[in-house]
Structures are given as structure tokens and as C-alpha cells.
Amino acid sequence: MVQDQTKTLPDFFLVGAMRAGSTYLYELLNSHPDIFLPSAKEVHYFDKVEEVNIEEYSKKFYEYNGQKVIGEATPNYMFLPYIPPLLGKHFPKAKIIMILRNPIKRAYSHYWWAVKGGRLETKTFHKALYLEENRLKEANRNGAVLLQKKSTMNRYSIF
Questions:
Q1: Measured distance CA(56)–CA(106) in Å, rounded
Q2: Beta bridge partners of 98
Q3: Alpha carbon of 85 to those of 24, 46, 122: distances in Å?
Q4: Smallest Cα–Cα separation from 104: which of 158, 25, 42?
Q5: For residue range 116-156, what is the model confidence (pLDDT) as tens digits?
Q6: Distances from the Cα of 88 to the Cαs of 3, 11, 61, 124, in angstroms?
Q7: Segments in the chain forming alpha helices (H)
Q8: With DSSP H G I counted as helix, E B as strand and the rest as coil, what are the percentages for the chain, rounded to 5?
Q9: DSSP assignment, residue 72?
Q10: Do 17 and 100 form a contact (C-beta atoms < 8 A)?
Q11: Which neighbouring-strand residues pair with 14?
Q12: pLDDT tens per residue, range 90-120
């Protein structure tokens, strides 16, 4: 089958909150024979580049094999205010699928993700909540910015 070389860019973008089910939705969509998603779930193109190069970006979809719909799943795109207009400019017909979760349940799930293996959190959930505001201030004093282009998440925050 000769594939349409012009059809190598997304028809939809899956964005959303961490610990909200984006991996599950990615796997469900990826199992459909008419939907193509890159094998690496999170492409992280638009949150990592200063200038958009559509030809370079299209190389992220090199495995495309003629499916009817192409998608990309990079949940962090939701947190960067410059990305929706950028997607609208380059992909005016593309849909944005946003996956959210009850914020309390999401924060608690994120807490336990951070606790696993002692990777980021060693305090109790209640203590971590109590410390949250000061942690954010400290992170910002140390150069971590919540909504900057190069770093989309503040690792000190469970929110």
C-alpha cells in the first residue's frame, strides 16, 4: 500500500492533567486499527522547541502506515498557554481532546506516584498539602517556573 505522504500530521491532540488517565486513553485509541499514534506516547515537540518546524515535527510520525486518523498524546501541552494558539495556527482542523479528573482524587494519586520508591515525596499526604505553598515559593526562588517553555511541571508540586 502506498501511503499518502501529505497525511503525516495529527488530526487530534490528547492533552490533560497528570494522573488523569491519559495513558489509558492513549492505549485504547492506539489499539484501534484506524487510528495512528506514535509508539512513544508523549512526543513533547511543542513544549521543547523555540521555533516550529512542521517538516521536522512530521518525522515524529514516521511509523504512520495509512490509518484514517493520526493523533498525538502529550498531556503537558494543557499547561502551556502558548500551545493552543500554536496548534490552531498549524493544525486548524485538529481537535484537542482534554482529559481531566476530580482534582482531589488526581492530587492524591499524584501524591502516591511521587511516594513510590521515595522518588519525590517522603511526607504524609496531609503534611505535603500543608507544605505545598512554601514548596512552590521555594521552587520559584530556585528558578523553577511553572509555566515556562522548557519545564512544564514543577516537580515539587503535587498539583
A1: 34
A2: 15
A3: 27, 11, 38
A4: 158
A5: 867 788 889 999 888 888 887 877 776 654 444 333 344 44
A6: 25, 11, 19, 42
A7: 22-30, 54-58, 83-90, 103-115, 125-141
A8: 40, 10, 50
A9: E
A10: yes
A11: 73, 97
A12: 999 999 999 999 988 988 888 888 888 677 8
Residue 22 in 3-state DSSP?
helix
Dig out the grid coordinates for 147 from the structure.
Answer: 509555566
Cα 68 to Cα 5, 30, 65, 158, distances in angstroms: 13, 12, 9, 38
This prediction's pTM: 0.77
Amino acid at 134: N
Q: Is 62 helix (H, G, I), strand (E, B) or coil?
A: coil
Q: How far is CA 41 from CA 23, 108, 137, 139, 156, in A?
A: 8, 23, 31, 28, 24
